[in-house]
Amino acid sequence: MAPHSARHSFISTLQAQGVEVGLVAKLAGHKSAVVTLSHYTHAMRGGEDAVEALDRAYGGAAR
User: Fold this and answer.
1) Packed helices 3-16 and 21-28: angle between N→C axes, nearest 10 degrees
2) Which of 4, 14, 18, 50 lies 20 to 30 Å (CA to CA) from residue 27?
3) Cβ of 27: how many Cβ atoms within 10 Å?
4) Coil, strand or helix: which one is 39?
5) What is the pLDDT of residues 2-61, one digit of tens each?
């Protein structure tokens, strides 16, 4: 996975799990939560299916 893809996945996953956007912005190194929201929120639309697919792919293996 390319570094940019890993970063995008990290931030999007935190948002999908309900982590407060200010904290996500801080972890991402963004100066403002507005940057985080404007660049990464689009990944959240319809993201439930993607999260479920990831859970099936990775979550089921640990059970």
Assistant:
1) 160
2) 50
3) 13
4) helix
5) 877 888 888 888 888 889 989 999 999 999 898 888 887 655 556 667 667 777 888 765
- Please give the Cα distance from 30 to 34 (Å, whole number): 9
Return the pLDDT at 26. Answer: 94
Cα separation, 3 vs 10, in Å, equals 10
Distance of alpha carbon 49 from alpha carbon 27, whole angstroms: 25
Query: How confident is the model at residue 52, as a pLDDT?
Result: 76
Place of tokens 């990831």: 54
Q: How far apart are CA 3 and CA 63, in angstroms?
A: 29
* Phi, then psi, of 53 in degrees rounded to 5: -65, -40
